[in-house]
C-alpha cells in the first residue's frame, strides 16, 4: 500500500506539475484510492481530481479529451461515438468492470502504457497526440516508444478522420485480461495495423501497414504474415511467443477484411447522404 507524508489537490495542471517536479519523492495520483495500489512511500501525493483535466471538447477537426476523463465518460460521449466507426466507445462497452471504468482515466492508461489494453491499440491506429505540461504536443506513437519521462499528460487530442477501425482481443475467458490485442484502421489512402499484448505495449507494424496501403485488400494474406514477423513477441501468461505469432496471422486476416467492409459500408452511407 502506498503511503505519503502529505497529500495536495492542486486546482491547475501547472500547480500539480510544479509540485511534482519540486519534490523528489512525489507521485501523481487520480484520487486517494489509487494510493492503495502500490507498496511505496512518498513524501508527497498529488491528486489530480481538481486540476481541471476532466472534459471532452469539440475542436472542429479534432476532439480534445482531458487526461482525467474516465473511461465511463468516454464510453458515453456523443462526440466520440462516431469516430472510427465507433470503435473507441464500443471497445469500452465490452469492459465488464463498471467500477474500473468509473475510476480509470485516459491519461492514466496512456501514461502507464498498459500492454494488454484494448483501447490503446485503437488509439494508436488513429491520429492521436498527447499534450504534456510544459512540453507541448507529441504523437502518441512517439510517447509510447519513449522511456519514462516523468511528465504529466494533460490532454489527448484525437483527429476527426474518415476512417473505420476494426479491433479484437484474445482472452482465456470472457471478462479476463486479453493476452493479445489488435486494431486495423482503413482510410481513403492509408491503412494502419497495430498489435498489443505482445506482451509489450501496443506497436504499429510499419512495413506491413505500408504494404497494405500500397497493394490493398489483395495483399491481405501476405500482410498478415508480415505483421507476425515484423513485431516482437514473447512468452507470457497463458500464451507463448509462437502462439502469439500464429494468432496474430489469424487476427490480421479477420481485421483487415472487417476494416475493409466497415469502411466500404461507411463510405456508401456517406455517398447516399450526400445525394439526398
Automatic annotation (TrEMBL):
InterPro entries: Diverse_Substr_Oxidored, FAD-bd_PCMH-like_sf, FAD-bd_PCMH_sub2, Mopterin_DH_FAD-bd. This is FAD binding domain-containing protein. SUPFAM superfamilies: FAD-binding/transporter-associated domain-like (SSF56176). One of its GO terms (molecular function) is oxidoreductase activity. Pfam families: FAD_binding_5. Gene3D superfamilies: 3.30.465.10. It comes from the Bacteria. Residues 7-158 form the Molybdopterin dehydrogenase FAD-binding domain. PANTHER family: XANTHINE DEHYDROGENASE FAD-BINDING SUBUNIT XDHB-RELATED, XANTHINE DEHYDROGENASE SUBUNIT C-RELATED.
